[in-house]
Here is the input.
Amino acid sequence: MMNTASTSIIIALNQKNQTISRMLEEAYTQLSQANTIIAQLSTQLNYTIQQLEYYKRQLEYYATITHSGNFSETITGSSEVNIVAVREVRGDLFTVYYEGVTMKAKVEVTPGNGRILVNTQPNIGIDLQSSIRIAATVAEKYTGVSLKGTDIIVSVIADQAVQVVDGPSAGAAITIAIISAVTGLKVNNTVYITGTINPDGSVGSVGGVLEKAIAAAKSGCKLFLVPKGQSNIPILKPIEKTIGNVKIITYQYTIINLESHLKNYGFQVKVVEVENINDVARYMLGEKT
Here is the structure.
């Protein structure tokens, strides 16, 4: 009787231990999934903050801008520039990651009424309208040529339909393309840039720098221009721990040097920080200003 009772107790304890073990495994799995989601939300928040800062600067600019009816000469020209962006890729229910994409932006300047026209091929989700307006103003200041009597047509050309998440980061590149179209200076297609353009001609910070740099390097980039302070960037580094049969992944921010990181991927790309459109023109147009 004692043996039977002991056996029953042992079986009951084993079942209880198995139940507790399963509960712990489920809890660890849920914790790992939660950490992954938190990391994804952190990345999305970073992009959103960068965009809000950009739009804040635009709002401040438009609050002070005044319009004049000055006559402007007729300007005609076209140019093409490489642009980089970041797209969101969904793996499964709990996995979202980001990767860089490269596209072409063709700028045409024609006689018109000061309109900004954006065309995408194929259908691309990218917000360029507001940043092109700023780009045109900066290009006017840089070249000394009024564009009030012209239309600016920007065609964004990609190999595939893609939904990108940081449209304003092409602002600096579009500015260079407009300057090129107005002056006839040719854009160096081995030089890529990511950065917003501000009304004073400064280049603003952006998100997704690493993803964009890798995409540019794969497309033949030799020189990658980034906003001041973004040649060393924070990334989320995954840290794996195994408890029993469960793998837990947490994420920790660490600072990396972009140029060195690209070399680790096998890319020989020089990374240079730029502060304003004069810096950018020097590298992309050969302008010594």
Observations:
- The mean pLDDT is 82.
